[in-house]
Amino acid sequence: MNIEHRIISKLTAERARMKKLVKEHGSFNVAEVTVEQLYGGIRGVPIGVTDISHVNQQEGLRLRGFTIPEVLENLPKADGAEFPLAGGLYYLLMTGEMPTKQEADQVEIEWKVRSNVPDHVFKSLAPMPAYTHPMTLFSQAILALQSESVFARRFYYGIDKEDYWGYYLEDSLNLTAKLPTIIANIYNLKYRNGIFVQPNPKLDWSANFAWMIGKHDPAYMDLMRLFVVLHSDHEGANVSTHASHLVGSALSDIYLSCASGMNGLAGPLHGLANQECLRWLLDVLSHFKGKLPDDEQLSIYLHEFISSGRLIPGYGHAVLRVTDPRFLAQREFALKYLPDDPVFQLVEKVYQILPGILKENEKVKNPWPNVDAINGTLQHYFGLNEMDFYTVLFGFSRILGITTHVTWSRALGKPIERPKSLTTDILEKMIEGE
Length: 434
Ligand code: HAX
Hints:
By secondary structure, this protein is mainly alpha-helical. It contains 20 helices and three strands.
């Protein structure tokens, strides 16, 4: 069954499930909001419901109910590859069902058919100054593609609201199909004298990105397959997914929604963190003149670094309270492919020593590494040294999750998001009991 038919087969039941909850338990109080939360980024307050993924404090991410090891084991693999086809991952995210190899291949084929990127997209990027951040180019490319939105065109002529989701899915398949060509050629525009490379029809979605930037090593292609799975989704309320969801709730199409999400991902407190991690590791190595410090030297260095009020990139998490399973999956890859790489050896040493040091500060809620503590190290090993591109790789993967959230919200008929803000005056009066 293809994605569309599988969604149709579940839609009636999923809509009924939601309607029943609202009808029978509409006034059930899920959470209260404190003043601290109002001023503190609404931290921890549930703001929506999604079945696509969930992050549990103790075990980390589950995609459609599957843990990361389960997803990596059960998703169909590209022929001869160790890691999954992104087509199968998209099937899982969109439908909630683990696909067969045939279903995963079907999505890959669908993507190839839809992969052509119209000329005007790259023409709109070419005149940008050479120092433009690649995330700006990425967001700009997605926005330039909005001219092709099937939903926007059909909406103009009028569509039954029950059918919105089908056009969102159509746009999602079209946008995701073009992503490898878009990001690879943004890379080529910035770092390879603007050469334009066409996708290789024999390769799958994730591997094609590697191919188009001139990296033909099968191990790097597998790294990209792993990277895509690990970065594809992380609940519905992180900045990029929530931004896209919010914009989509105004019936802005997938292109407008995803460009908003990518603008959020480009922030240093969100997706930009991965470039900071590698920069930090290289700085530490350079401080020790390229040699791996011993435990004592590293411990002194880390203590001094933290005492100067600085954060160690790649450590801590707003939700997780254990080592991020996405870190562990990448560590396993590194142990197999780059055990002797000096940057990876430093990652290992920091992992042994830093949690103990962070625990000395009671305020640190999670002393363990997150996904970003290692992903740049892997890219660096395979020669992708342009750190400002790492967030684009994150966005490339994350759009698989984002388009799923936005499409399902239309399928379930969710309304425009419109929370409430207060004035300081009103808040003070509420506290005084007026
Ligand atoms: N190094 C040093 N101190 C840290 C720390 C770290 N990595 N992580 C947390 N702390 C400190 C905080 O600064 C805070 O101290 P103050 O109260 O004095 O300001 C204290 O511990 C409590 O923080 P927390 O409640 O444990 O952490 P938050 O939920 O506020 O923030 C962050 C979570 C991930 C933002 C934070 O741990 C951090 O900045 N880490 C480094 C940056 C990073 O790795 N970001 C990527 C996160 C993964 C992700 O979402 N990518 O998109």
